[in-house]
Design a protein that fits this description.
CATH class of chain B: Alpha Beta
Number of domains of chain A: 1
Distance between the termini of chain A: 76 Å
CATH class of chain A: Mainly Alpha
CATH architecture of chain A: Orthogonal Bundle
Distance between the termini of chain B: 17 Å
Strand content of chain B: 35-45%
CATH superfamily of chain B: START domain
Structural class of chain A: alpha+beta
Number of domains of chain B: 1
CATH architecture of chain B: 2-Layer Sandwich
Largest sheet of chain A: 3 strands, antiparallel
Largest interface: A-B, 34 and 40 residues
Order of helices and strands of chain B: EEHHEEEEEEH
Number of helices of chain B: 3
CATH topology of chain A: Arc Repressor Mutant, subunit A
Oligomer: heterodimer
Shape of chain B: globular
């Protein structure tokens, strides 16, 4: 039975940084529905195998990939739940904006104190 | 201040101690909108008019759909250069409801790409991530 590594939950900024590179996003697209060996991922790119390995390392660090060993091969797949922190960040975008709006309006139009 | 995500809809609310007449121009006047979102705005607040907001390296683009001072404004929204969330690809509706002398703001962002569909997921979340970083 292959061992599935437990990866630490990722912070949103680590996820965002990992997603900031187009090659890494392409890797995630490749493995979003199917588990693939590193060699097959590398074969989809014109990058060196070493460069692809580095990208895989960043994605793994961010918790975006699962890694499973099968004999001498390492298989990678997208860890879908790792995108949740970004989703949560998104849910904070408009509330954060509206609280800045509240501050802007109430600062520019202060209510006279009640007497 | 609260927010929730229901499928592809985000709803955010805020209570502001000023009447809707005071709050409304903050969605239509370029000099006022940048006090709370973005750092440069190009706004033409009439149906079909441009809605463009620079937020650092991210540019939100869309058009006004409805402009009904001082209670309601609707504009389309998207990120320039994003296939996943193209300019005008989603819709933001803002309702300003009087609450005594104050205003209840309810902002509904509809038509966001579902986070459960495959290909574009990483792409649009990245774009929105950059947006968040720029706005934060």
């Amino acid at each position: 039975m292959a061992e599935r590594k437990q990866l630490t939950p990722a912070a949103p900024d680590a996820v965002l940084r990992a997603l900031a590179d187009p090659h890494r996003r392409e890797i995630l697209r490749l493995v979003q529905h199917a588990e693939l060996p590193a060699g097959q991922i590398a074969a989809s790119f014109t990058l060196t195998q070493q460069a692809v390995s580095q990208h895989i390392g960043v994605l793994k660090q961010a918790g975006l990939l699962t890694e499973r060993r099968e004999g001498t091969r390492r298989l990678y797949a997208l860890r879908h739940e790792s995108l949740e922190p970004v989703r949560e960040l998104l849910s904070e975008f408009w509330p954060d904006a509206l609280s800045r709006l509240k501050k802007a309006v109430e600062t520019a139009h202060p209510r006279p104190p009640k007497r | 201040m609260t927010a929730e995500i229901l499928n592809d809809v985000i709803i955010a609310t805020e209570h502001i101690k000023a009447p809707p007449e005071v709050v409304f121009p903050y969605f239509t006047d370029p000099a006022l909108i940048v006090e709370w979102i973005g750092n440069r705005a190009d706004l033409d607040p009439q149906p079909g008019g441009v809605f463009s907001l620079d937020m650092g390296e991210v540019v939100a683009r869309g058009a006004y759909i409805a402009v009904e001072p001082p209670y309601r404004v609707v504009f389309s929204w998207g990120i320039s250069g994003s296939d996943a969330l193209p300019p005008g690809g989603s819709t933001v509706e803002v309702a300003l409801t009087p609450d005594g002398d104050d205003t209840m703001v309810v902002l509904t962002h509809r038509g966001l790409p579902s986070t459960h569909v495959g290909n574009h997921r990483a792409g649009w979340e990245h774009q929105l991530g950059r947006l968040l970083v720029a706005a934060g």
